[in-house]
Amino acid sequence: MKCSSLLRQVNIRVLSQLAYQLLTIFILSACATVEKHQLPSGSEISKQAAWEVHRANIQSIQTWRLKGRVAGKSDSQGFRAGVQWNQFQHNFVIDLHGPLGRKVAVIASKQGSIQLKTSKGESFDADDPEELMQSLFGYSLPVNGLRHWLLGIPDPKQAHTSLVLDEQGRLKQLKQAGWLIEYKLYHDSSTALPALIKISNPTLNANIKVDRWMLGIEEI
Q1: What is the DSSP-derived secondary structure letter of residue 190?
Q2: What pTM was estimated for this model as a whole?
Q3: Rounded CA gap, 156 and 147, in Å?
Q4: CA torsion angle for 109, 115, 116, 120 (degrees, to 10)?
Q5: Which CATH architecture has domain 50-92+141-219?
Q6: In which band, very low, low, confident or very high, does the pLDDT at 134 lie, cut at 50, 70 and 90?
């Protein structure tokens, strides 16, 4: 009886030690897992670093031109137009053309004012080109933010609620000023400027296809 009792005590002690060791291993493993998830991966650090360099390079571009097309739908009305955008530091000229190349409108900024001229020869001055476009054509492109979004960077004057990068550290998705901007394709060039952009909000969905870019005197 004494041996049997002693054996039971030894078994209980061994089992207790074993349970303690297993519990210790479990706790250490759990802590290690938590710490691992708190640290960013090497690829995330690389993407962020690439993005910072890319954004700085793009923000340094002051003069550029693009030619492309925009097609979309605003409420129940569809629209399609050719676009030529000329940016000269803080001033711009935007030419909108119909499907057959007929000029629809010209939007120009100069010294803080906006002027819109229609194909009928009408001329309008406004502080907000988006409201003016909506009243004249039934749709409005976000001119103020679009200047930056076309280049693949956020508008630095407005806060953004979401920013997603692709594997190369370029913008993949952006939410800013009530708009969702999605970058579907980039031009295969050293500057990596967007080739296909989708913009949308509750009242408008549009795809912008950029066929050609020119930075200063360099065409890409």
Answers
A1: S
A2: 0.75
A3: 11
A4: -130
A5: Clam (2.50)
A6: confident
